[in-house]
Amino acid sequence: QYEQTILVADLQGLTDNGNNPHKVSSNILNVVADYLAVGIDPLKTTICLQSAIPALAELTMYYSNLVSVARLQRNPTVKNEIASKSFGSSIPTGFLMYPISQAADITAFKATLIPVGDDQLPMIEQTNEIVRKLNSIAQDEILVECRPLLSKVPRLPSTDGKSKMSKSMGNCILLSSSEKDISKAVKSMYTDPNHLRIEDPGQVEGNIVFTYLDAFHSDLNYVNDLKQKYREGGLGDGTTKKILEECLQEILRPVRERRETFISDKAQLIEILQKGSEKSQDESSQVLKDVKNAFGLNLFQ
User: Fold this and answer.
1) How far apart are CA 125 and CA 131, in angstroms?
2) Which of the chain's ends, N or C, has fewer CB atoms near its CB within 10 Å?
3) pTM of this structure
């Protein structure tokens, strides 16, 4: 239905990994392999690399003059991320500015519909603020506002239920996870701490196993029946975890197999990324030209 561009955001990855850049660079092709493994077709979707598109960094610089530090600090997503990463007062400047960078990523392609989790809604709001300010300066509609596209599960919690998924915290399931890793992750999932015996009534809300069943199980009527039995008592956590594990193993097995095929051909992944980035450079350079004109910085044009 849509012309789609997907960005591998390596520059944004550096905002909290500046002292360990290898962590970012070594995972670029892994991300591309993930995209292909879940069925994204590079012939229909442009997959590009953020650092390979100079216009994005330039747009970030221009937009940074339209946003105050106070506004960035008020951004709920930024505040939550800063707290979770325990930066204290040592917040990298790039990290504080990443909402501006995301605005550049979006507006560079005049994107109108942005697939996000609900924790990213403040980013969409901030992007549209920048769009309106820039258009006001230009006295023309050179940028377009966007809106979010949320899935039926707008935010998937980590397996421990405490925060966002993080590989370093060991509370996530990767597309490349082995059967053993998936089994271990499901068995460690947070459920209802008060559900001590099978016959005890259990709470579904906040129970990560049921959150994942809602997200991934193909038979929602069956899941609803499980919820009812769990609430009434008589359904154990071991049973619900077994049902979830079988569901996830079935979903992720073909994804993992496809991913292994793609990651074994790194030359193909690089070619896909290079072609997508070249196409994206052409698109974003025109937007950059319009923004520079808005600021009157077009002396050599």
Assistant:
1) 10
2) N
3) 0.89
Is the four-CA dihedral 219, 225, 231, 237 of positive or negative sign? negative
CA distance 285 to 291: 10
Q: For residue 10, which of 147, 105, 133 has the smallest C-alpha distance?
A: 105
Token pair for 212: 């994942």
Does residue 83 register a pLDDT over 90?
no
In the predicted model, what is the mean pLDDT of residues 125-150? 97
- For the residues of 110-176, what is the DSSP string, one character each? T--EEE--GGGHHHHHHHHHHHHHHHHHHTS--S---EEE--SSS-PPPTTSSSS--TTTT----TT
pLDDT in tens, 230-287: 999 999 999 999 999 999 999 999 999 999 999 999 999 999 999 999 999 999 999 9
Burial 188-209 (b: 16+ CB within 10 A, else e): ebbbbeebeeeeeebebeebbb
pLDDT tens, position by position, 251-265: 999 999 999 999 999
Cα 75–chain centre separation: 17
